Each structure stands twice: as structure tokens, then as C-alpha cells.
Amino acid sequence: MPYLFALQAIMTPHRFSVASLFVLLLCVATVYSAILPRQASSAKSSSSRISSSKASSASKASSSSKALSSSRVSSSSRVSSSSKVSSSKVSSKVSSSSKASASKITSASISNPRTGSTTSASSSVSGAYSIPQKEAAPSKRADAITSKRNNFQYGPPVAGGPAFPNGTLGNTLVSNDISSLQAETNKQQSASSSDTASANADISKYNGLKTLNDYTLLYDDEWTATLSQGPIRGILTNYTQDLLFSMERLSFSPYQIRRLNSSKDKLNFQVDDKIAKNITGMTLQQLFTSGRLFYSDYRDQAKLKTTTNGARYSAAVDAYFYINQTSGNFLPLAIRTNQGGSLVYTPADTRDDWLLAKIMYNVCDLWFAQWEHLARTHEVVQIVYMAAIRTLSDTHPVKALLDRLMYQVFAIQPLAASILFAQGGAVDISFPYAYDAAQDYSTGYYFNRSGAFQSNYFLTDLKNRGLINSTTGPALKNFPFYEDASVIYSAMRVFMTSFVGSYYSADSVVLADKEIQAWVKECNGAAKVIDFPAAIAKKDTLVDVLTHMAHLSSTAHHTVNTNELISASATLPFHPHSLYQPAPKQKRSVSNLTTYLPPFEKAQEQIQINALFSRNYLAGTNRTLSHMFDDATMLQKMNANTKTAAATFKSAMDSFSSKIKGRKFDSKGLSQGMPFVWQALDPNVMPFGVTV
């Protein structure tokens, strides 16, 4: 797409620093807006068709992504000079933006730019929202939908995954979202710049990062503008504990672990019976048949193209975890490397070998979490919402609700393409695999697992992986992700049930809603949404769909991204983006673990990248999850029951926020059964919407 060519022209001549990521973030909207007329004109003459089968789409995903990346590079020389932004002009923009961002964000300063009509940038819906059966002017309403369909089209993917908006209206909405995100991130850009300067000025205090403890000093009274209270309690002091490592899989990285079922699964590697019994009291087979064995698999990463920009490595591990028969704790049993050497590590190994094995696991897990979540959350809600724009009237209450939930949704893929998946971008300078491999990896997950709509319903997914309501083995004693997310999910479902019930008195009314039925047809047709319901003929089905959209755009996303990176899941020394030596080919060969960790410049680079995603400054504003449905512009056109439901949701979230804020370690040094205090899903801290 043309705006990506323009961005590539800025980036290609030189490898940009992490600080430049913020510069690019601020100039994206300017560049994009400059080429909108050209793109809109091009869209009218181009075909917006997508291939007719999901299987065909899946098989073409990787090649399409590569072609797009190649196209960006080869076309950069063709971008007109007017589309380019000079470094001096960008610096000036950053400077002025930083000054503007100094003012505190208040609830009055934040509004959803897409609340109301999407027919044009300036028009607005008058009167109350209504379903089509209640429409006083049905012909006018139908004509408006037709106009939207003509001007909002399915374009080629951006940053992989499904189709991306095209057409005059599509381009306008993308531009609006980028501008909104740009304005909102000015404050973080200013904070990160200040933190970076301070951290680099204090280089002497890190002792040359000669020990693991030296890495914790990187956060000692540092990065305070971005993270005023520092990383979460326990994450820098208890990282050598096996319980911390294993419980990370049940809190801020819960999407890969699954329970093995001996009736249908197999053991992918063996652990010596004597070793397993000494660690767990049971053999591997006994753990397997008793339903106590869990598995996590990152072997697919061994097939990825490795980076050519520096010496960085991974290990493509797979691993076993288990429920201890005495304590009931969820603990690690074994980690196998599948790059470098093929070694099986257990807690019976030397301290350094076992700690390195856990670090190697975290490298793989962090790669998975960041690129899989793009497919699981951003891309799924994006394509479902695109289908809604093309089929639902702007006066439809479901469309209005989706407008609210999809805040800034179209800004993310362009930023991923230009800042993450580009040469010289975040992946290229910090991760073990090539920048285009990250896009291909994410796209592969979208088409083969994470893009499935119904299969990834919150409770369905956890049940399918044996994490809740398992038919075999004991229940997990503690499952913090489920414990917190289920409170929010339940409150969302209560709101959606009230909302749907207030507009649809019976299932027959849902079935008679021609726009809802057109949305279903569009999702299963032109949009090619994977695993979308074949029919929405009941109120409960519509509630399911809307609750899932709310879940994906909030709790599902913010568990693994946003504030979590700099505060927990990417903290050093335990969670590096990459290894800085190849995985060992034999045990007892590690003389100093720090040689596998990033040197100072790369460590600071990692923290800077993670800071880019932080949105802690939104805490306490109306951009938080508590205010998900609390939008005055939207609610004034909703019915009384929906207004009441929105107030009920906010009250429930405020109460839950107080509970999360009050968490501390118990007498055993644990919180939710973990040696760290997890507060990522605080509704008055995390944003609503799939923000970066």
C-alpha cells in the first residue's frame, strides 16, 4: 500500500535506532495523509476481491506477506519526494509533540473518533440507535449501507493476516485511527526519551552487567517516567524460583500451555524415569496417564529464518510441566532444546544449566506471545469489524457498540508493518529471527489456529486445552489469568446480555434483523472470517459474538502486551528477546550465564522497545477498561437499559480494580499462588481497545 512505500523510503537508507521508532510513530499519520488521495483514486480502479476459499487464503498467506514486504522495499525508490519526511522536520515534530504531551491526560480529552457515523469524517448519527425493523426511513438507511459498501472495501493484508481496509472510507478510517493513536502516544514518547537519557547517563552503576544481579540494576530508580513503580513485585527478586517460571504460563503468557490427555495425545520426548521420579514422585508415563502432565511446544521456531543483523539466537524448545501430587503446585519438569544441541534439561541439572534452560524457554515464549497475539486479537477483531462496517447501518446499536470497542483498531497493522516487521525495525534489531519471519509466523498462526473465532472463545479455548473443567487429572490449584479474566469476561457478558435483550425481545427478532443476517453472511463470505458462527438466529449467539469481541480487544490482548512487557514478561535478566550465544551442545558448558544475555547497549534497546508499548499513563482516565461502555456520545443514543448496564459494568470494574490494587504477598511469600504480584488486568489501569 502506498503509505507503506513512503515509510520504507524513510527507513531504508539507514538502520534506525529505537528512539527513531517513536519518530516513525509520530510521522506515520502525516505520511499516510499525504498519499490518501492517491490511494483513494487507486482503490476505485482496483479489485477488492479476496480468494474464494479459506484454504486458498491460508496457503497464500505466507507468500502474500513476503510479496508485500518485497514490494515495500522495491517500491521505496518510486515514492515521490513529497511523501518523504526529512529527519530535521521529524525532529521538530517530535520536539513540539513532546511539549504538547506534557499536559496530563484527562477524561475530557479522550473520545472515540468513530462514535457515530462512519459514512464520512464529519457526519453524525441523529436520533436514537435502532434495529432495522424499527427504522422510519428504511430506503434511506439501505442506501447509506450501499454507499458504505462502495467506499469501504477489502484491500490486501498489511503486516500479514486477513484483508485490510481500502477505498475512500477505508482510507479515511485508517488515517483517523493512526492520527488518534499518534496523539495518544505523545506522552509515552516523551517519557521514554527522558528515561532513555537518564538510564544511559547512569551507565557506571550497572557494573558492566557482569552478573545476573547487575541486570536488575537496569531498573533500579530507572525508567520511572514510563513505569513509576518499577517492574511488578517479585519478578526481579524471585526469578530463579521454579514456581515463578511455571506460574508465568498461567498468568501473563497463558496461550500455549495445554494439558496432555493420554487417550489422544503422545509424549514428544522422554525423561528418564529415575530423574522424573526424584523430581515429581512419579514417572513421566504416570504423570501422563494421571492427567498431571502439561506441554508447551515451540519447535516450529526452528524452521524460521534467523536474523542476519547481528549474532542473536534462540533454542526452539518444547517443555513439560506437571501438577505436584503433594503440594498441588504447577511446576516445570523438563525443557528440551531443538536448536543448537538437542538436550533435555530438568531441575536435577546444575543451577546454571537449569536457569539457562528456563531463559531459553522464555526467549521462545516471548517470540510466540508477541506475534501470536497479533493474530489472536488484532487481526480477528479487525476483519469481523470490517464486515460489520459493510453491512450494519451507522444507526444500528450493534454497529455503534463495535465502533466503541474497536477504538484505534486500524492503526495497529500499519504500525506493525513499519515499526516491527521492517528492515531496521524492532524485530530486526532485537529478536533472534528475521523481521519478515515474524510477519510470516504471525500470519501462519492466524490462518492455522489463532484466527478461529468460536474455537478461541475465552472459556472454550481454556477447556479445549485442559486448563479448566478437564476430564482428566486434578484441577489447577491456582490459575491467575482465568481468575482475573473470568471476572471481567462475566461482567462483559452481563452487559452484552442486557444490551442484546433490550433491543431484541425474542430470538425471532434477531433472525428478522436483515443487517445482522447480512453481517453473518459477509463474515462467512467476502470477509472470510475463520470459524465465525454460520448463523445468528438467537440472542445468546449474538451475545457470544459481542462478548468475544470485547474480550479480544481488552483482557485477551493486555494479558500479553501493553504494560506487561516492561513490567514483567520482558524484564531482564530472565526474559531476554534473544540469546547472545548459540544454545549449548552439551551440558555443564556454561561458565557465565551473562554471556547469553544482551550487552548493555542491547539491554537498553530491549527496554526501550518494551517501553514503546507501555500505556500506564492512561491509568485513572476514561481510556481504561472500566469505561469500555461509558461513552456519553454513544449512550445518549442508546436505550435506558443499555445505559443502566453500562453503569453496572463500570461499578463492577471499579470494585474489581480495588481488589487487584490491594494484592500483596501472603505469609508464604505468594500472591495468587505465585512468587510475584500480578496486576495486569486492573480495569482502572489497562486500556479498552487493542492499543499497542
UniProtKB/TrEMBL annotation:
GO terms for biological process: linoleic acid metabolic process; lipid oxidation. Residues 118-692 form the Lipoxygenase domain. It holds the Pfam family Lipoxygenase. GO terms for molecular function: linoleate 11-lipoxygenase activity; metal ion binding. PROSITE patterns: LIPOXYGENASE_3 (PS51393). The keyword Oxidoreductase applies. InterPro entries: LipOase (IPR000907), LipOase_C (IPR013819), LipOase_C_sf (IPR036226). Residues 103-130 have a biased composition (Low complexity). Keywords: Dioxygenase, Metal-binding, Oxidoreductase. Residues 46-73, 103-142 are annotated as: Disordered. SUPFAM superfamilies: Lipoxigenase. Transmembrane segments: none annotated. Signal peptide: none annotated. The keyword Mitochondrion does not apply. This is Manganese lipoxygenase. It comes from Aureobasidium pullulans.
